[in-house]
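Consider this pair:
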Amino acid sequence: MQATVPEGKRGGEEMQVHTQSGQVLDVFIPLGLLAGQTFQFNLPGSAQPLSSASAESHTGAGTAGEREAGEAQSQGKDMRAYLQAHPLDVGDKASEAAMQRSAQALEDAKHKAAQKAMATVEAEEKMKEAEEEEAKKETAEETAEVAAERKDLLETALKIVYAKEAKKAAAELQAQHLAHEQVCVCVCTRVYSTWGI
């Protein structure tokens, strides 16, 4: 019977398959397969040989070595180290190439994930630097605006002080002028009275 690896599943894991007779079987996905790929497996009690198109595929239940390798792979263990530590049985030899491809794919995926993480970190650092530069620019603009406002306020305050001082000086001059006028009036009055004018 043929089955397609569902989304979220990969080689080394189990999946459920609904047969034409209505049975639900737990089937081992051969190592090296990804979502969307198909494989052949024998139904329980069936002795049909697998087709040549799926020569690397195995029976639904899989061998004990395949199950252990599948568990190791699903737990994210290093498949190369697993293969070295667990020699394959004769029945597992057919899946050795698939397991090695799977291990290589896992290593490649880890490498790509590390590169992507580094690129993300670099992008975040560049974004942070750009934000800091923007903040410095805004701070400089705000500082210039504050300085301009202070200058305007100082000029206004000086104008007010100068105006007050000018008024005060004018008032003092006027008072002095009045005092001079009064002195002149007094002197003139005495002169006139003395001369009898």
Remarks:
- The CA atoms of residues 14 and 28 lie 4 Å apart.
- Residues 96-195 form the longest helix (100 residues).
